Amino acid sequence: MSNPSLLILAGDGIGPEVMAEVRRIIDWYGEKRDMPFDVSEGLVGGCSYDAHGTPLTDETMARAQEVDAVLLGAVGGPQYDDLDFSVKPERGLLRLRKEMDLYANLRPAQCFDALADFSSLKRDVVAGLDIMIVRELTSGIYFGEPRGIIQEGNERVGINTQRYTESEIERVARSAFELARRRGNKVCSMEKANVMESGVLWREVVQRIGDTEYPDVELSHMYADAGAMQLCRWPKQFDVIVTDNLFGDLLSDAAAMLTGSLGMLPSASLGAPMDNGRPKALYEPVHGSAPDIAGQGKANPIACVLSFAMALRYSFDKGAEADRLEQAVEKVLADGLRTADLLGEEGATPVSTSGMGDAILAALEASL
Ligand code: IPM
Ligand code: MG
Question: Where is this site: Important for catalysis (predicted)?
């Protein structure tokens, strides 16, 4: 049998430097845990535009379809702001999501105990927080037609369309219920059924899937605006939140910041199972390309490292090895090591991007 394959698309800004640390961890698993991966690399985002005039070439797209998992760093930067919409760095990422049909985007918001004081909320509101947002990722207003900017009389009109089919709602609902069964067994679905027909259908379908297939999972519904409020008020009431593409974009940023550490959070985007039983999958940090600090050794590699941990768990069925990596991260944080985004406490030890990588590798070594 051949080794599992990984495609690394480090992207722009801090993407390459955080991915370099992940690369060392992948190599460590190959050497020390007898888990060799076939790693290939490609371009996505602005760097691909610079090289090829497109944020994602057809060759790279095809490669992404073949591998067992894609690891992505980050895309975008101010030098690309004025590019035509069709070739903006973000289009590369959206094309990957759409063509790989990665409909379930898992965004955990976990508060590391060592970092609870970085939250803008009080420690007791966030300490121990562990919620999972499941964001629908391939439909809704991000992709609905008609869209565009059209001329109407003497002014222009911007148009986007929110659109969900029942089967699109069903499959992401199932992802959320399945996850809940392996966690706290609760799902809260968020939409705006009070103003949007797509929300009425969303609520109805999620309820039906819950009643017929997951009666053991506790299901509740919330309007997304109230959900945003409850996330800030008492986030620990939630286990799994399932929501559409746009609400999920907003709610997951808010949830991420509750933990005080946007630089720490990973994500997994999963599609339907391939022939080998593995889901199509792309793993990426929730943070962006942070062009202001790129190339200075200031970036926090932990979100990208934890994205690889999610790959171990969801693509390679190596839950225990994912735990090992997550515990290594917890250990270095508990030891007071901090990249520039997390400085400020007394007694913290400042480290560079690669210094953080060194420490995580040392903690992995110590775990053997
Ligand atoms: C995200 C980002 C993307 C999105 C952008 C970069 C296209 O904000 O992954 O949350 O809006 O989905
Ligand atoms: Mg976003």
Answer: 142, 192
Residue of 130, 253, 335, 358 marked active site: 253
Distance (Å) from CA 103 to ligand 1 centroid? 14
User: Does the residue 125 lie in any domain?
Assistant: no
* Vertex 40: Cα angle to 38 and 43 (nearest 5): 160
Looking at all shown ligands, the one closest to residue 246's CA atom is 1
Whether 280 sits among the annotated catalytic residues: the reply is no
Mean pLDDT over each residue of the chain, to the nearest integer: 95
Atom of ligand 1 at shortest range from CA of 253: 10
Whether 122 is covered by a domain: the verdict is no
Does residue 55 register a pLDDT over 80? Answer: yes
Q: How far apart are CA 64 and CA 17, in angstroms?
A: 21
What is the atom index within ligand 1 of the atom nearest the CA of 284?
Answer: 9
The ligand with the least distance to the CA atom of 92 is 1
> Residue 107 belongs to what domain range?
1-115+262-368
Residue listed under structure tokens 């535009």: 49
225 assigned to active site: yes
Q: Which atom of ligand 1 is nearest to the CA of 94?
A: 7
Whether 278 is covered by a domain: the verdict is: yes
- Whether residue 178 sits in one domain with residue 107: no
Residue 191: inside a domain, yes or no?
Answer: yes
How much is the pTM? 0.94
Contact 46, 322 (CB under 8 A): no
Q: Is 108 in the same domain as 136?
A: no
Task: Give the C-alpha distances (Å, rounded to integers) separating 131 from 126, 134, 187, 254, 256.
Answer: 11, 10, 10, 12, 10
Residues 325 and 210 occupy one common structural domain:
no
User: Do 164 and 245 sit in the same domain of this protein?
Assistant: yes
